[in-house]
């Protein structure tokens, strides 16, 4: 990632969303063994997609589903070759900055794989509810109350 130009942006073209799906397939389906029917859940058309590139090469993605006053961050993934460089945190910060500007959004929520709880806590998220299995992977819901941090 050194000397690379990082760009993180919302995308809506079919080709850019296809890149997001390719990254999700690589990380969730190929690496983590999530089935296609669970990963490709039919909600992509209702979500806002985020794509991160380095030197214009897609390397990370995520999506946001808006549910009333909550922005739910989902499907955040970073290509194996770019992990450990802070790109996941940059995507989350980008999303938080963008959704915080919307006065109709009071909470940001996500379902974190439990191995990543400390990562999300460092970004300001707090655990809510109890641990659960999603695609046979332990998860914990986490959220930020934007009204508390305003």
Task: Name the features.
Aminopeptidase, 7-stranded mixed beta sheet, alpha+beta, 5 helices, 150 residues
Structural description of this entry:
By secondary structure, the chain is an alpha+beta fold. It starts with 5 loop residues before the first strand and ends with a helix. It has helices at 14-31, 36-39, 87-100, 117-122, 146-149, and strands at residues 6-11, 47-54, 57-67, 70-78, 107-113, 126-134, 137-145. It is built from 5 helices and 7 strands; from the N terminus they run E-H-H-E-E-E-H-E-H-E-E-H. It has one domain (6-149): Aminopeptidase (3-Layer(aba) Sandwich), CATH 3.40.630. The chain is 31% helix and 39% strand. It has a 7-stranded mixed beta sheet with strand order 1-2-3-4-5-7-6, sandwiched between helices.
SSE arrangement:
Blueprint: E1 6-11, H1 14-31, H2 36-39, E2 47-54, E3 57-67, E4 70-78, H3 87-100, E5 107-113, H4 117-122, E6 126-134, E7 137-145, H5 146-149
Parallel strand pairs: 4-5
Antiparallel strand pairs: 1-2, 2-3, 3-4, 5-7, 6-7
Q: Report the C-alpha radius of gyration, rounded.
A: 15 Å
What pattern of helices and strands is seen along the backbone?
EHHEEEHEHEEH
Stretches where pLDDT falls below 50 for ≥5 residues?
none
Mean pLDDT: 93
CATH homologous group name: Gcn5-related N-acetyltransferase (GNAT)
CATH class: Alpha Beta
Order of strands, main sheet, comes to 1-2-3-4-5-7-6
GO molecular function: acyltransferase activity, transferring groups other than amino-acyl groups
Protein name: GNAT family N-acetyltransferase
InterPro entries: Acyl_CoA_acyltransferase, Bact_Acetyltransf, GNAT_dom
Organism: Pelagibius litoralis
């Amino acid at each position: 990632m050194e000397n690379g130009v990082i760009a993180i942006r919302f995308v809506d073209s079919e080709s850019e969303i296809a890149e997001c799906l390719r990254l999700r397939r690589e990380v969730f389906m190929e690496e983590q063994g999530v089935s296609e029917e669970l990963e490709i859940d039919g909600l992509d058309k209702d979500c806002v997609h985020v794509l991160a590139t380095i030197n214009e090469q897609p390397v990370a993605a995520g999506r946001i589903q808006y549910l009333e006053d909550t922005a739910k961050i989902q499907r955040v993934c970073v290509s194996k070759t770019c992990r450990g460089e802070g790109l996941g945190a940059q995507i989350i910060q980008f999303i938080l900055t963008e959704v915080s500007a919307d006065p109709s959004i009071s909470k940001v929520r996500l379902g974190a794989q439990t191995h990543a709880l400390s990562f999300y806590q460092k970004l300001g998220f707090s655990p809510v509810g109890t641990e659960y299995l999603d695609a046979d992977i332990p998860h914990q819901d986490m959220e930020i109350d934007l009204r508390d941090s305003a």
